[in-house]
Amino acid sequence: MVTVADIRAVALTLPRTTEHLIRDRVKFRVGQIVYAALSRDETVLGFGYPREEREALVASDPVKFAFPSQSDMRFQWVHASMAELDVEEMTELVIGAWTLCVPKKVIRAHLGEDFV
């Protein structure tokens, strides 16, 4: 199971990331763009994910992944059960969400040429 501390340890190492507490929810963002957020009870991780790929992600493991609420379907967003995630998978998802909201030059500088 992944904890808030695990997510924080990954997210805060990513350039331009800031952590905010908004309506009792921990959110990680770059500028005004939220790329990862925790539910109030800290059991669900919401994260940015390409719209065209999220149906396949949810279908791959519906116990672990879920669509956001209908009103949030317009965003590039998916939910994951923190109890079902391991640290390695969470790290991959958080970094992937971060890459959706930073310039490619920042991604290259932090993760290397191969990641872009």
From TrEMBL:
It comes from Lentzea flaviverrucosa. Pfam families: YjbR. This is YjbR protein.
